[in-house]
Design a protein that fits this description.
Blueprint lengths: L12 H17 L2 H22 L9 H18 L8 H19 L5 H21 L5 H8 L3 H10 L11 E3 L7 E2 L12 H19 L3 H12 L4 H8 L3 H29 L1
Antiparallel strand pairs: 1-2
Helix pairs in contact: 1-2, 2-3, 2-4, 3-4, 5-6, 5-11, 9-11, 10-11
Length: about 270
Amino acid sequence: MMKVKKYSKKKSPETEKQLAGWWEKYNTVKDKQSKDKLIITYLPLVKYIAGRMAISMPSHIDSDDLISSGVIGLIKAIERYDVNCGTQFETYATTRIKGSILDELRSLDWVPRSVRGRAKLLQKVYTALEEQLGRQPTDEEVANHLEISEKELRDWINYATPTTLISLNTVLNSGDDDKPLQIIDTIEDLKYKSPLGMSEQKELEGFLSECINDLNPQEKMVVILYYYEGLMLKEIGRILGVSESRVSQVHTKSMLRLKGKLNQRMKEYTEIC
């Protein structure tokens, strides 16, 4: 597991002045030297994002490969960024760096069909048992339902780790006129919020909050520390007194449960509509 330092958007006045000069020179005359300096300056952002994504990566994925793919996204972001768009470069670049890493992983066929099948089965089992029992099922109960040992269940969860990542290019449905509707097409334009959109977002946030509250204390803590506090695996493990691999396993199990509930919610919503 790679060690990653936190990335800070705050820079000294001197650095900000240098960056402004490099951006102006690059946008004006496409100066290669300025571009190279921008790449070096923002390279820590790539390492930080790769480190954050490592929680959902299989163990055989080399961290250097993640960083290399991320650098490609960084370069494309620098080439396309408009300094007058009103958005910080780090915000603009993050999506492209993540996308570049995921594109490379997809090309490697890094998640076998059998693994995805088991992950979907785990989601269904967690959701079904929770509805049946009226509480979160234990590992023993899940293993018994699947007719496997608890050790095999832990192996299933470890193998399912990469399936907790969601690609923005995932097709949700065929859409109107058979035009594929991808997740990226549903991302809200932050410059415009309709009353309906705001209502749906508030409802979804409330549902997710309820789902997170239903997690056991350790799972809830991992989700909060990772997604809300932005901590790394090692930092979370230190706080909880467990290993990085255990944090990864707890995170995967939490995501499988949350995805299962969201899928069930979407299914119910579709049936109503």
